[in-house]
Design a protein that fits this description.
Catalytic activity: L-histidinol phosphate + 2-oxoglutarate = 3-(imidazol-4-yl)-2-oxopropyl phosphate + L-glutamate
CATH architecture of the largest domain: 3-Layer(aba) Sandwich
Helix content: 25-40%
EC number: 2.6.1.9
InterPro entries: Aminotransferase_I/II_large, PyrdxlP-dep_Trfase, PyrdxlP-dep_Trfase_major, PyrdxlP-dep_Trfase_small
Largest sheet: 4 strands, antiparallel
Number of domains: 2
Radius of gyration: 20 Å
CATH topology of the largest domain: Aspartate Aminotransferase, domain 2
Structural class: alpha/beta
Keywords: Aminotransferase, Pyridoxal phosphate, Transferase
GO molecular function: histidinol-phosphate transaminase activity; pyridoxal phosphate binding
Shape: elongated
């Protein structure tokens, strides 16, 4: 979101990807070097917990950036979903110690659902893969598998589309984000909402695997002889 806001205002953006899943940690070495080499960088934006990763940043990583020996910019630490994290995860108090740190927090409703119970129930559904990233936000990131058992953007798109159009359930397709191939972001709701979602997801996955991925997602891709849509990814067995 910060990158989009910068682009709207014609401000250049230097993007530094997170380290690979499942940690999704800050690549502090690359960030530090960029700040050393590009004096025109004025602001560093960090999201904790990350969206869609659900992982909080390590305090030592933020401290390293704030302690940069030559950079004089501002660090924006967005802690929108920090209330779902451990009590020691927030760095809000640091804003009184570091003049170049600005902390952002927004109140979010807590529906009472639990992360661990959702992970347990999700992984029991055929067609759902691993939970990627962290568990410190009000959402989780899950792999959606094709019928060969591998994470698939085509399958995730189809499930996303079917849930939305047929059952009025909103998830977030994040398969195009770095390190999130084949993933949907699932929000944590009330117990009743979670139960309804799990039932709908189970039915949707069965429908998608039976009728083909093109039934849920429109757009580019090649439909093979089995009616399966494989946009921008290899079919199993291809190299």
């Amino acid at each position: 979101m910060r990158a989009q806001e910068a682009q709207v205002n014609d401000i250049g953006v230097v993007k530094v990807p997170l380290l690979p899943a499942p940690s999704f940690k800050l690549d502090t070495e690359t960030i530090y070097n960029a700040l050393s080499e590009q004096s025109n960088i004025k602001m560093v934006c960090i999201c904790s917990p990350g969206n869609p990763t659900g992982s909080t940043v390590r305090k030592e990583d933020v401290n390293k950036i704030l302690s940069h020996s030559t950079w004089n910019g501002v660090v924006i630490l967005d802690e929108t979903s920090i209330d779902y994290s451990s009590k020691t995860a927030s760095l809000a108090k640091w804003a009184t110690e570091w003049q170049n740190l600005h902390n952002l927090q927004y109140p979010e409703p807590n529906h009472g659902g639990t992360v661990q119970s959702l992970i347990r129930d999700m992984t029991q559904i055929e067609g759902v893969g691993c939970s990627r990233g962290g568990t410190e936000a009000n959402f989780l990131l899950f792999e959606i598998l094709h019928e060969y058992g591998q994470p698939s953007n085509a399958a995730a798109c189809a499930v996303y589309g079917c849930l939305l159009r047929k059952r009025g359930i909103v998830t977030r397709f994040r398969g195009k984000d770095y390190g999130c191939h084949g993933c949907l972001r699932i929000a944590i709701g009330t117990e009743d909402e979670t139960a309804s979602f799990l039932q709908a997801l189970n039915l949707t996955l069965k429908e998608v695997h039976k009728t083909g991925f093109s039934s849920g997602a429109r757009g580019g891709g090649v439909v093979n002889g089995n009616g399966l849509n494989w946009p921008q990814e290899q079919k199993p067995g291809q190299h």
